[in-house]
Specification:
homodimer; alpha/beta; Rossmann fold; elongated; DNA-binding
DNA sequence: TATATTTGTTTAATCGATTAAGCAAAGATA
DNA sequence: TATCTTTGCTTAATCGATTAAACAAATATA
């Protein structure tokens, strides 16, 4: 039953006995086409349910109106929210997006880049996988001359636009908050040092600790993949120390969750015995007990800004790929896992 | 610095002073091209970093090798896992996927369908938005003659391939489990009746309740959007009843979470006073306290099967869009929220 | 030797939309 | 009336890859 063959400009042209050029222009409301013809064309187009062939027009125009998005994973609220807001802005500007996930794998990320370039996207907005250290594939995007915008997980060396929060300052906020709570031995389970954002958090942690004259003990600073499981492992390590910390700041919410589970299993009073702070403000931080203090990264804003940055690039193609950083302020959401005062009242 | 203009077949042809046709065939290992020419072509292609223009080849071949995927949202573990496994299977078969999210909105879903058709995808794999009742847009996909496969949220009337779990039987498993726990007044916060899967869960609930000779009280059966917030609201309604239920089965984990929060706020003993069961086995069900009993839907398997079903369609185009249902068995994951026995020991 | 087959390649059409250039007819200007 | 503009459309080239058809040269077959 299905009308297999799609309607093309030619079909419309044949019916009206005019050229395909006229039809094309009529549909684009070209000023050189009479309104009579335009109406006729539009009517027939509607009747035949004409849908332009995107491949043909993209090929001809050298522009696909597609933007590729690479995220480490979609099942995190942060990335999902970034993407959603990005999409909203881009849709309004006539762009559609293609989402791909790297699953934190370097290989998968390279494949994603290939797929997107292959699909002839007009630009790529990406957040890098944890594993990624080799930037060749990103250089490939740059060398193709299409806009590349990074967010959250970026990389200075690439020298491209970047949107993210101030990780260094966020660490300061967290340490300051914990100090206010009376904590004196603050541990940090950080991400990979090689990743820019995690490195900034580590630097922020160290500087803030020193600033407050607290001990900067190397056994209190651990490097982690920040998965839930690794959060468990690293927390167990901290509990095994001769002198346990009285606060733990963890650079990711999932790892913080694993850590919290270990604390509960060990019947440790959170926050009074050990206070806990995560990072990312994933919804579950508010759901577990005790709810976990965390950092809100303004995902919606990051998504919108990334999209706008892309649009700026395409609207003025002369702008070179330049290091144009947009750094947002983060927000500390204090919850019971670090709020000793709430328990004193 | 960037080498703006991409290498085309023509560039290679010019260098080797052969026709583009020869180049094209050489790259495809056509048997009629001498191995000498093939080698030369491949060498030059590599040197010039040739990347075929997908738009051109898709236009010519009438096949984009792209599969569109529509999910209500990506930030649920279920959908994210489905998509990931789907992608794996499709990638191996030379297909790439384009993910779009409907955010449970009918309008957004229609836009997604338009985007995907516009991008000339070779097929669409979708799970319908909660809001969707009008099937016109899905009929549009069918009428275009491209394969459509639904999973999880499907619709009988569309008469297309469907992959999902046995919702009716799942409800039976849940009710049976609660009866075993000694529950006698089991409530159900279900999804929208109009949605096939939720309707099946409701039917399963009713039938199982009757089978065990329990009261099928209308005030114990509520219809919900199954958001976390609505879970709270509906649980409050149940608590306000003259005779409270001693078990609540909720057709979605997010709503179950909201309900659990209300129960905890009201200092109700879960599971002894009221037992709780969710649906979907989202990771947080294991994380909260008490952990929530839930149904595992085998997302990985669903993803793989959906992909395979698509591949079957394209490999034998004569197969009409037919009602080919693949129903998987679900699995009940019993956790503390409904496990009274664990507390007796 | 004459004919058939295989091999290796080129020519040219094609996918569908876009657009520069061309051109005829109508209208405006002098 | 003669010339210039504007209007409204057509022609034809183009984007880049693919492929049917054609063809020459080499090889096989009779």
């Amino acid at each position: 039953m299905s009308n297999k063959k799609k309607t093309t400009l030619k079909d419309i042209a044949n019916i009206l006995e005019i050229s395909t050029a006229a039809v094309s222009k009529a549909l684009q409301d070209d000023s050189r086409i009479s309104s009579k013809t335009k109406e006729a064309v539009k009517k027939v187009a509607k009747d035949l349910n004409y849908q332009p062939n995107h491949l043909a027009s993209a090929l001809r125009k050298g522009k696909s109106n597609l933007v590729g998005v690479i995220v480490p994973r979609t099942n995190s609220n942060f990335f999902s929210s970034v993407v959603q807001n990005m999409e909203e802005v881009l849709n309004k500007a006539g762009y559609n997006i293609i989402i791909t996930q790297s699953n934190e794998s370097y290989k998968k990320e390279c494949d994603s880049i290939d797929t997107l370039l292959f699909t002839q996207v007009d630009g790529i907005i990406a957040s890098m996988a944890n594993e990624t250290t080799d930037l060749d594939y990103y250089e490939k995007i740059k060398s193709r001359g299409i806009p590349l915008i990074l967010f959250d997980r970026g990389e200075n060396d690439l020298n491209v636009d970047y949107i993210g929060i101030d990780d260094y300052a966020s660490s300061h906020m967290i340490v300051e908050h914990l100090v206010e709570q009376g904590c004196k031995r603050i541990a940090h389970i950080g991400g990979y040092q090689r990743t820019r954002i995690f490195n900034n958090r580590i630097r922020g942690y160290k500087d803030a600790i020193e600033k407050h004259g607290l001990p900067l003990d190397s056994e209190l600073l651990l490097e982690s993949s920040l998965t839930q499981e690794d959060g468990r492992i690293k927390m167990e390590q901290l509990l095994a120390l001769k002198t346990r910390p009285d606060a733990v700041y963890i650079a990711g919410d999932y790892a913080a969750l694993g850590a919290l589970q270990v604390l509960k299993e060990n019947a440790i009073d959170v926050p009074n015995e050990i206070a806990l702070v995560g990072f990312g403000n994933e919804p579950f931080t508010a759901m577990v007990s005790p709810p976990i203090t965390s950092i809100e990264q303004h995902s919606a804003e990051i998504g919108r800004l990334a999209a706008q940055t892309f649009l700026e690039h395409v609207s003025s193609p002369d702008i070179k790929q330049s290091l144009n950083k947009k750094i947002l302020d983060a927000e500390l959401i204090v919850r019971d896992s670090s709020n000793k005062k709430a328990f004193l009242n």
